[in-house]
Design goal:
Length: about 160
């Protein structure tokens, strides 16, 4: 028979394991906005996020990442990496910037409905929480997240 103390001990161990997995290995992200349509959504998408990739910066241009929102740091957003350190990004017709070391440029696939680096500038790599690897819901869209940027054209040299 399981005593109350042993029950609590196992509960604490389970909670600690869940905490480590959620914060350092993989986590779930619920994406509700339309900024990543057509890749995600429309509607609510449930995503699997690889936290190890975020911690060690194992992502590249074209990957979809979960980022702490620079404008509201208590929330996260899902965006695509469009520029890595050293890349030149055309912000508008008259402005080209170079991404400085330790930063990335992120944009939503739905540029009309996305608040992203075009609004808040390059994002510190320390704000990238992880790489989105799978869409789990809705079930008819379940699968790997594509690494592509069909709308993106590099600035002139």
């Amino acid at each position: 028979r399981l005593s109350f103390g042993l029950f609590v001990w196992h509960g604490v161990r389970l909670w600690a394991l869940a905490y480590v997995v959620e914060n350092y290995i993989v986590s779930l992200h619920k994406c509700k906005d339309r900024s990543m349509v057509p890749t995600l959504g429309p509607g609510t998408s449930l995503l699997l996020v690889d936290r190890i990739a975020g911690r060690f910066q194992w992502y590249r241009e074209g990957d979809v990442v979960e980022v702490l929102n620079p404008m509201k740091p208590t929330t996260t957003v899902v965006k695509r990496v469009v520029g890595m350190p050293g890349d030149r990004i055309m912000v508008d017709r008259d402005t080209i910037i170079t991404i400085r070391p330790g930063h990335v440029w992120v944009e939503g696939d739905n540029v009309i409905e996305s608040t992203d680096s075009r609004s808040f500038g390059p994002v510190s790599a320390s704000l990238v929480r992880g790489k989105v690897v799978l869409q789990l819901h809705p079930f008819h869209r379940m699968g790997r997240i594509p690494n592509n940027m069909p709308w993106h054209t590099p600035p002139p040299s």
